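Note to self: keep these together.
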Amino acid sequence: MFTLRQILDKFREYNLQTHHLFIDFKAAYDSVKRNELWQIIIEHGFPAKLIRLIRATRDRSKSSVRVAGEISSSFVTFDGLKQGDALSNLLFNMALEGAIRSSGVHRSGTIVTKSLMLLGFADDIDII
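Structure:
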């Protein structure tokens, strides 16, 4: 939010017009494919030991659901990140960064002489 506020202040200071496209991903954390996430983290140059430690807390994690007041038996999950987990924001941002890079979309550029910026945090994106 600080970065967005600073950008908007500068646009106002120079009396420039802005347009925003806010994107909020539905079930964002559930949509992360962990195998792809590990590959992205490797490509970003994370140390192998750190990757092993992170994977140890994520691989073969178990979940259960409540249906009609009853809690189900636990089952192993292979994809997704835990809501509220301390590392989930960082890991989601890494997955999002990988998706942005592989799509060929860059963080800034121009469309019909207008400058573009892409800001992202957790499961929200703002294209300015």
